[in-house]
Structures are given as C-alpha cells and as structure tokens.
Write a structure and sequence with these properties.
Layout lengths: L1 H17 L4 H16 L3 H17 L13 E3 L4 E3 L4 E6 L2 E6 L13 E10 L2 E8 L11 E7 L3 E5 L4 E3 L1 H20 L2 H10 L2 H23 L2 E6 L4 H4 L7 H5 L3 H15 L3 E4 L24 E3 L6 E3 H14 L2 H13 L6
Parallel strand pairs: 7-10, 10-11
Antiparallel strand pairs: 1-5, 2-3, 3-4, 5-6, 7-8, 8-9, 12-13
Helix pairs in contact: 1-2, 1-3, 2-3, 4-5, 4-6, 6-9
Length: 347
C-alpha cells in the first residue's frame, strides 16, 4: 500500500510538471521508473498511473498528493476470488490468499462482482470495496408526482405534507461537539481513547438517518405510482450566504448524500426520479403563482400577499416542486412509456 501510493505521488508530480492527464503519454514517461523505484508489478504500475491521472483531472491547479495509507486499486488481473470466503491479491512478494468476512446481506451479491475493487485501510482493518452488478428494472410509467423539498431544519418534506425533521440530527451533533470539547480540554489518555471512539460517529448517524428517509420516500412513491421530483441543489453552498453562527449547520447539510440514496433506491425499485431547477420554489404561491419574498414572513410560514393563501412553508415548496412536473405529466408519462418500449433511446 505504501509503495503503491508513493508511486502515485511520483506520477502526480510528473503530471503536474508536464501539465498532462493523458494516461497513455504519462505511461510512456513514468512506467519504467516507478517499476524500478517502487518494486510494484506491471499492472499495479498501470493502476497507479490511472489513479494519479484521475486525481489530477479533478483539479489541474493542484499537484496530486496521496496518503501512504490511501486506497490500492485492484482489477481482475491482480485480484481473484476463491469462493465466498477467500480472495487472492497481488503484493510486492507475489500472490497471497486472504480470508474475507462478508455479512449475510452482501453474500448473495458476490456472484455479480465485476470490474475493479479498492483495498482501503481504516481503523486498523483492511476493507475490500467491490463493485457488483445489480439488475435495474424498467422504470414504471408514473401516474402521479411526489415533490420533495430538501432543507436543514426539515431534512425533507414531501408534497403530501409528511415532514422529516432535522431536530434529532442537530441534538446529536450538539451533544457530540460538546463532548469532544470537554475531552480535548481534559487531555488524559482515557479522554484520547474516548475521542478516538467518537471518530466518525456523527457521520454514521447522518448516513443512517438519510437511509431511513430515502427508504420511506421511495416506498411512498411505489405505493402511489409516483415519480419522485427533487430540486437540483448542486453548488448551493457557494450561492447562498448565512450568518456565522449557522455556517456549521450549512456545511454539515448532507443533501447530496440523501439525493444519492434516493437515486439508487429509486433505480432498484423502478421509480422515476426527476430533478428540477429550485429557483423560487419557496417563494411562489401555488394558487395565484405570485413570486415574492414577502410571501415568506417567517422561515416556517408561507402567506401569499396577493390571494392570502397560507400554510407550512416547506410543504408548499414541495407542492410547487411537484407542480412543475405534474403540469407536464402526460408528456412525462409518454416519454417513460417510450423508454420502456425502446430502451436504446434512453441515452
């Protein structure tokens, strides 16, 4: 692992120096050097070049730098499965066969393993992250629309009025922050062990909450034969400003993770997922369609200054999100029906 990531650093330096992320060109320049300098195999050298090029492509203004314990990329040439409980991996000293622990939930999927895998080292344990093929069912033809408004105070609110509050997450975050501060100020060996134990606890809690919310939303869409409609919030952190006291909440807002969970759960269930422009969804009146900031006298309340329509602000935003698709529902249903009949047109 250390030699592989050292080779990646060497390739990253060359890529930055030559201003190129072309794997073929870099391989001609660095292949022989990294094999001799770091003692890695031919295919491992190819994987190191590929990893460095992908990192450099993401931001060409920064020289790629890799942690010694960074992931090692394995493909089918340097990794093979020996049943469900053993795997053969290439090392600096040749192949070794290692026992693998797989939970009952993932074991049935191992017959669909394909492509490359990442060997990662976390908290003293090696994990092999493998890619599996999951057959994706045909998208159902939607009859209705379920709009979902994503936020911080309420993590998600759907157009039927169901709210998924973020109050529990905020309490856990505040509790963990206070506990960490107390332990850091204490500084004893016991406090340091406790801090290590707390590492990643908040992130794991966030993931669990997002999994539960996404599961409920997809289940509701299945029950009501609906398409799920979300706001495309890409880049929202750069577009909005908040007071200093709220910056921590804003940067801990895991809306993208929730969208990913909804995306793959909807794909497995055959539920269509549609993303729309979020502009003015929280300021538009669903009755008279007046768009005004004055329609939101408070964060939680919506009251139209024109027709007087009022209600919970997040629920009305979710209704507006659903309405932007439902007005074109016949067209949407026809498109999904055509995609089912002619899957090759989906691209």
């Amino acid at each position: 692992m250390h030699q592989f990531n050292a080779a990646c650093n060497y390739v990253g330096e060359k890529a930055f120096e030559l201003h190129t992320a072309n794997k073929i060109e870099l391989q001609k320049i660095v292949y022989r050097d990294i094999r001799e300098m770091f003692g890695i195999s031919a295919q491992m050298a190819v994987r190191a070049i590929s990893k460095s090029c992908e990192a450099y492509k993401r931001d060409k203004s920064i020289k790629p730098k890799f942690d010694p314990n960074g992931a090692v990329i394995y493909d089918q040439r340097i990794m093979s499965w020996k049943g469900l409980d053993r795997v053969s991996l290439l090392t600096l000293d040749g192949r070794i066969k290692l026992p693998v622990v797989i939970c009952d939930y993932h074991a049935p999927r191992l017959d669909r393993i394909r492509g490359q895998a990442d060997l990662i080292f976390q908290n003293g344990t090696f994990y092999l992250c493998v890619v599996v093929d999951v057959p994706e069912p045909k998208k159902s033809v939607p009859q209705n629309v379920l709009g979902v408004d994503l936020g911080i105070k309420n993590i998600a609110v759907d157009s039927s009025g169901e709210e998924f509050s973020g109050e529990k997450i905020e309490k856990v975050r505040s509790k963990i922050d206070n506990l960490k501060a107390d332990l850091q100020s204490c500084g004893t060996d016991s406090a340091k062990r406790h801090l290590k134990k707390l590492s990643g606890k908040e992130a794991r809690f966030h993931r669990d909450v997002n999994h539960c919310i996404s599961k409920k939303l997809v289940a509701k869409a299945i029950d009501t034969s609906s398409a799920i409609v979300l706001e495309d919030l890409y880049g929202i952190r750069e577009r909005i400003t908040v007071p200093k006291a709220q910056r921590r909440k804003q940067h801990n807002w895991s809306f993208y993770q929730l969208r990913q969970y909804i995306d793959y759960k909807a794909a497995i269930a055959g539920v269509p997922l549609i993303c729309i422009d979020p502009a003015y969804t929280s300021q538009e009146c669903p009755i008279c369609h007046l768009i005004s900031r004055s329609n939101r006298p408070t964060r939680d309340e919506f009251s139209c200054v024109c027709c007087g329509f009022s209600g919970p602000a997040d629920t009305i935003a979710a209704r507006n999100i659903a309405a932007r698709v439902s007005v074109n529902m016949p067209i949407v249903a026809r498109l999904f029906a055509e995609l089912q009949a002619h899957p090759f047109r989906e691209g």
